[in-house]
Write a structure and sequence with these properties.
Layout: E1 5-6, E2 17-28, H1 54-57, H2 68-80, E3 84-85, E4 88-89, E5 92-95, E6 105-108, E7 115-121, E8 135-145, E9 149-151, E10 160-162, E11 169-175, H3 182-198, E12 211-220, E13 230-235, H4 238-257, E14 265-270, E15 275-281, E16 291-292, E17 299-300, H5 303-312, H6 317-326, H7 331-338, H8 341-354, H9 363-380, H10 391-402, H11 408-419, H12 424-431, H13 439-452, H14 454-462, H15 467-477, H16 484-495
Parallel strand pairs: 13-14
Antiparallel strand pairs: 1-2, 2-11, 2-12, 3-7, 4-17, 5-6, 5-16, 7-8, 8-11, 9-10, 12-13, 14-15
Helix pairs in contact: 3-4, 6-7, 7-9, 8-10, 9-11, 10-11, 13-15, 13-16, 14-15, 15-16
The structure holds zinc ion (ZN).
The site of zinc ion has 8 residues, from helix 1.
């Protein structure tokens, strides 16, 4: 493995450093209620402070009760990441004073987190074959409650706090310092996001704050012990993670090349200026005064129950990809679908609906049509796959094209209406869109076009490739309904070319 090097930009001297990156990823768990009370967990977009109760507000005498579904989802993701599950896993209080923490402590886990010692092979990600064998250790996965959110109205001499999010369930995973470049950090995050969505553990949407990453980065000369690490917080997209890391690597390389020390500190990311800035000096674990939470019993995770959870978990993206490759899909298309949970749901529904049709395209043909035409048509309408697709009409449309009843261009033209739920067979019948395969009718059309374009005909006689120009004109004259293979054969025959068949 070659060490990734960072050089001091803009200087004549180039010092090679190895980049060492570790990540802390927070995933909002997809539960109905918060981690220790009955309040709604997913409050994205809700009126501030409308989803709170004595427990998540930390009022005196209120007692937390752990959410079993959150524990289940945490174990599901931890086992998928190859973590060992702790049979006894306690909750701990992590103390800090900040307006977003109503109890002045956060319920988290310290000793014996739910999962430990997992791993992710970066090569298992979509389009990541070049990273195969780059195994990133997962040091721990633990449950904790989220904090509230502070808002700072512009020019106001005060700040506001919204405690809707306080107490929402998070799974935090902490990697070993095994990542060697900003691009690897991004590949890791993308893989975890796909996995969390496929397992229905988290929506993992950074734009809604449901997947957040803090990163730490240090540089060293290859073979040296780890350098001083700097943490960067408040990164709300994978793009920001990659850009902030790249900027910080450059900053550290410049300082080290100039013989300056790296301070251990926490920095923020200025999206506008594309640079990091100092937030505060770094706290150590001792500053948090962890202590076992006396209000919550230790979680007992029976190994048989853990095994059952592992067995009943939905398939991972890598498993779905293997199934698609088995069915004959091309690698790029299998990657494109398998790592997007919404695409998997839509494509599997389409595959199932296609089984009802005698002349359905092959799974590979269906995948090409799905990834190119269907997603293209959705994109043009500003729609995503999240809302699901009308699988039965779509499968019927694909089958009409596969058996030759309609041409490819006609199928494409009908897509928007079929995506809106229209029955393609009814549209074809009502508008007379069936493909023209009658040789006499096509022959008349071909003769008309040839008579109208003697110059193109002359060119096509001299140069067989120019036949395509005539093809296009005949297809246009038929408004896309002529069967292309039949037109090509008729043209070749009239031009005296050898038949393509
Ligand atoms: Zn509550």
């Amino acid at each position: 493995m070659s060490a990734t090097t960072a050089s001091s930009a803009g200087s004549f001297e180039t010092v090679p450093f190895e980049t060492v990156i570790g990540l802390e990823v927070h995933l909002a768990l997809r539960t109905r209620s918060k981690l220790f009370c009955g309040c709604v967990a997913d409050t994205f977009g809700a009126e501030p402070n409308h989803h709170v109760c004595p427990v998540c507000l930390g009022l005196p005498g209120a007692l937390p009760v752990a959410n079993a579904q959150a524990v289940k989802l945490a174990v599901r993701l931890a086992t998928a990441l190859g973590c060992a599950i702790a049979p006894l896993s306690p909750f701990a209080r992590k103390h800090y004073v900040y307006p977003d923490a109503p109890k002045n402590y956060q319920i988290s886990q310290h000793a014996d987190p739910i999962g430990e010692r997992g791993a992710v092979d970066l090569g298992d990600g979509a389009g990541c074959d070049a990273l195969a064998g780059r195994v990133i250790g997962i040091e721990r996965c633990h449950l904790e409650e989220d904090a509230g959110r502070l808002m700072h109205p512009p020019y106001a001499p005060y700040s506001l706090v919204d405690l809707n999010r306080a107490g929402a369930p998070l799974l935090e995973l902490v990697t070993a310092p095994d990542l060697r470049s900003p691009a690897e950090a991004r590949a890791f995050l993308e893989q975890v996001r796909s996995l969390a969505r496929a397992l229905h553990v988290s929506d993992a949407t950074p734009e809604q704050g449901k997947m957040r990453a803090d990163v730490n980065v240090s540089l060293r000369r290859p073979g040296d012990p780890l350098g001083t690490k700097v943490e960067i917080k408040n990164l709300n997209s994978f793009k920001s993670v990659e850009a902030a890391l790249a900027s910080e690597v450059k900053r550290q390389a410049r300082r080290l090349a100039d013989g300056l020390p790296i301070e251990q500190e926490t920095r923020g990311w200025n999206e506008g200026g594309q640079r990091t800035y100092v937030l505060r000096g770094k706290e150590g674990a001792e500053d948090y005064r962890y202590l076992p939470d006396p209000d919550l019993p230790v979680l007992r995770l029976d190994p048989a129950w853990v095994d059952e959870l592992r067995r009943s978990a939905p398939p991972t993206p890598a498993q779905v990809r293997a199934r698609y490759l088995e069915a004959g899909l091309r690698r790029a298309e299998a990657d494109m679908i398998a790592f997007d949970a919404d695409a998997v749901a839509a494509f599997d529904a389409l595959l199932a609906a296609s089984a009802d049709h005698e002349h359905a395209p092959t799974p590979a043909g269906l995948a090409t049509w799905f990834t190119v035409e269907v997603t293209g048509a959705l994109h043009a309408e500003g729609r995503g796959l999240g809302a699901g697709l009308p699988a039965a009409p779509l499968a019927a449309l694909a089958a009409l094209a596969a058996r030759g009843t309609i041409s490819g261009p006609t199928a494409k033209a009908l897509l928007p209406e079929v995506l809106a739920g229209a029955d393609p067979a009814a549209l074809v019948a009502a508008r007379g869109l069936a493909q023209i395969t009658d040789t006499d009718a096509l022959g008349d059309l071909v003769d008309e076009v040839m008579a109208a374009h003697p110059d193109v005909v002359a060119a096509a006689r001299a140069q067989p490739k120019a036949l395509n120009a005539l093809m296009g004109r005949v297809m246009a004259a038929s408004r896309g309904q002529a069967k292309p293979e039949a037109v090509r054969a008729l043209l070749a025959e009239r031009l005296g070319h050898a038949s393509p068949d």
